[in-house]
């Protein structure tokens, strides 16, 4: 079992979700987050003063998958999020030690779905 976390541009979320659906991956958690990477934020001019905006709006997508779905999940996220520009995002893959479905008490890969 793996826990996949992707941080992507907000305008690419629909494309990522479409790609995940095409690969039969439906169980997704999404959150709006703030962050910065190599672009180091953006500067804006407000009332003749330059103000640095150090954090940009991003979307964090979190998915728990069984081992057979790791590669398709990564491919779907990368295909949907890629624009070729700086700031496309990152994908992190972590080992998932345990998963428990609260309703039934099922554990492990069966609990993921």
Features:
113 residues, alpha+beta, Alpha-Beta Plaits, two-stranded antiparallel ribbon, 3 helices, 6 strands
Mean pLDDT: 90
Roughly what percent helix? 10-25%
* SSE ordering: EHEEEEHEH
Looking at the overall shape, the CATH architecture is 2-Layer Sandwich
- Count the DSSP helices: 3
Shape: globular
The whole-angstrom Rg is 17 Å
Under CATH at level 1, the class stands as Alpha Beta
Low-pLDDT runs: none
Give the beta-strand count. 6
Q: What's the structural domain tally?
A: 1
Residue fraction in strands: 35-45%
| Category by helix and strand content | alpha+beta
Query: Alpha-carbon distance between the termini?
Result: 11 Å
SSE layout:
Elements: E1 2-8, H1 13-22, E2 29-35, E3 42-46, E4 49-53, E5 56-65, H2 70-81, E6 89-95, H3 109-112
Helix pairs in contact: 1-2
